[in-house]
Amino acid sequence: MKKPKLTGRRAVWAGIVGTPFLLIAALVTLGVAAATPAGQSSAKTAAPAANGKLVSHNAATGSAGSVAAYWTTAKMAAAKPVKPLAAARSTAPTASVAATGVPSTSPGFVAPGMSQGPSGGPSPAQGVSSQSECYHCPIPFTRYYYYARYRSYPVSTVGKLFFSNDGGNYVCSGSVIGDHTVWTAGHCLANTDGTHLFSTNLLFCPSYNAGVNPAVGCWSGIQSWTWSPWKDANSFEWDMGGLVMSNCGTVHCQSIGSYTSWLGFAWNWPRNLNYVALGYPQGAPFNGAYLVECNSSFGYEDSDGNNQGGPNSSAIGCDMTGGSSGGPWVWQFGSNNYVNGHQDWYHTAYPNEINTPYFDGRACTIATTAQAFSATC
Fold first, then answer.
1. Is 70 exposed, middle or buried (0-12, 13-18, 19+ CB in 10 A)?
2. CA distances (Å), origin 43, targets 36, 118, 347
3. Hey, where are the domains in the chain?
4. In the predicted model, what is the mean pLDDT of the chain?
5. Considering the entire predicted model, what is its pTM?
């Protein structure tokens, strides 16, 4: 895999290889946004921020079966989380750019006949207010393997995302948020190793359980969407991704959401919320075989120092490792099940904290463009 071409990075992706007790720093060089490669296209300018532009890529033209044929058992086992980027940050971020827009939600959907699982564990205390945030104070959390059936709602929507980027094979996490749509981190869909390229061979496997669930199968990614400040300018505050899926899966020839159900979606809400974070961490002490859950409340705003006009990220307590990138932060888990964040990045000096880009109109814009739901963002 090629080395990243970034500089001045103050954080690393949640897709890091290694244990939460091993701090890895890498020195990298800054890449200037390249001309759009063949097969990649820029899209409309979005209103939420002056620096933001949606970019997309037609990820596949074949069936889920043809993409699945690429992903042999051996390739899945060898797929790697994103290579870590550089150094720790020790100063508090500048003041957040205020979110614009009305707090909004889009409802989830439970497929006919789908059972519903338990609430997933104890509910942590309410998060702090923005006036009392304590920067990098330890954020309490609980973490364990999810204990209920993977094929019950809402975790029936969560799975592993396999993909290729710049000659390497990788793995992330994601969740179904619409009839044909999966939500994940932007760095799973583009700019995985700092080369600003879109990912290919995208295959999403819900209810993954020590291997592809033979009763569920996988769906291929058809078209991916992310923001140019992430893909071309490396801003973690814009590191969001929506993926349009194939109409047929490898086992069930129906839309992914009609089989797995889908989660709700929330944007423009206050930060001080309680979350259940879900993902498939692969770095030690985990092996990527099973779904892991963190329960935490919001801790504080954070920044990678490259906001590009976007608001600061939000931090919770969680020590998941590589492979969890893109896994959903679910607000009101067990009831309304709204995705309001995802496993994304952390500072190397604070491996027990994880950040998500703040979900404002930018998150809604990707979700609606990727056909998850219709809304005014």
1. middle
2. 12, 41, 31
3. 12-31+40-91+102-117+139-369
4. 82
5. 0.85
Which helix (H) or strand (E) element contains residue 127?
none
217-242 mean pLDDT = 95
Question: 12-31+40-91+102-117+139-369 adopts what CATH topology?
Answer: Thrombin, subunit H (2.40.10)
How far apart are alpha carbons 332 and 109 in whole angstroms? 14
Give the mean pLDDT of 280-297.
94
Could you give the CA distance from residue 213 to residue 197 in angstroms, rounded to a whole number?
A: 30
The total number of residues shown for the chain amounts to 377
Q: Cα–Cα distance between 346 and 10 in angstroms, integer? A: 9
Distance separating alpha carbons of residues 226 and 229, to the nearest angstrom: 9
d(CA 81, CA 152): 27
* pLDDT mean over 49-58: 78
How many of the other CB atoms lie within 10 Å of CB of 369?
19
For residue 237, name the pLDDT band (cuts at 50, 70, 90). Answer: very high
Q: Residue 258: phi, psi to the nearest 5? A: -70, -20
Q: Which residue has the higher pLDDT, 301 or 11?
A: 301
Would you report the helix, strand and coil content of the chain in percent, each value rounded to 5? 10, 30, 60
Rg (CA), the chain: 18
Distance between CA atoms of residues 71 and 79, nearest Å: 10
Contact 286, 292 (CB under 8 A): yes
